[in-house]
Design goal:
- This protein is α/β, with parallel strands linked by helices.
- It has a single domain, classed as Dehydroquinase, class II (Rossmann fold).
- Helix 2 packs parallel to helix 5 and helix 3 runs parallel beside helix 4.
- The protein is globular.
């Protein structure tokens, strides 16, 4: 089983960008933890990041050819991108939306998500562990589908 971890805009700045909100781990450190967690779960984890909406859409579409599920932090595009929402709806893979911070405890513009409605679930507010919980959730979802 292969799982895509997809990081959106500005997540390449983790560790430097507002560490009081997003934590002190770098994206590379988070990715390393997720790859290790994948090994424990018996899945291959592939991590990708882009600041460009079109690249994120292309990556979601291409994932249909090789991934069984996706953990996705769309960053600021969460609140603006109908195109990302439509891509998730079109690909037919289970997607878990994740966010490092608790978006519900922040500015009002961060509360609505264009993509939540087409995702299987959402994990917010646990720092880098949001990704870890999302990875566990998507693996469980896929296993349930395969065993159901």
């Amino acid at each position: 089983m292969k799982i895509l971890i997809l990081h959106g805009p500005n997540l390449n700045l983790l560790g430097k960008r507002e560490p009081e909100i997003y934590g002190e781990l770098t994206l590379e450190e988070i990715n390393s933890k997720l790859v290790e967690q994948g090994k424990i779960l018996g899945v291959e984890v592939v991590c990708l990041q882009s600041n460009h909406e079109g690249v994120l859409i292309d990556t979601l579409q291409e994932a249909c050819n090789w991934a069984q599920g996706i953990v996705f932090n769309p960053g600021g595009y969460t609140h603006t991108s109908v195109a990302l929402r439509d891509a998730i709806a079109a690909i037919g893979l289970p997607v878990v939306e994740v966010h490092l911070s608790n978006v519900y405890g922040r500015e009002s513009f961060r509360k609505p998500s264009f993509i939540s409605g087409v995702c299987k679930g959402k994990v917010v507010g646990f720092g880098w562990r949001s990704y870890a919980y999302g990875l566990q959730a998507v693996v469980d979802l896929i296993q349930d589908l395969n065993n159901g």
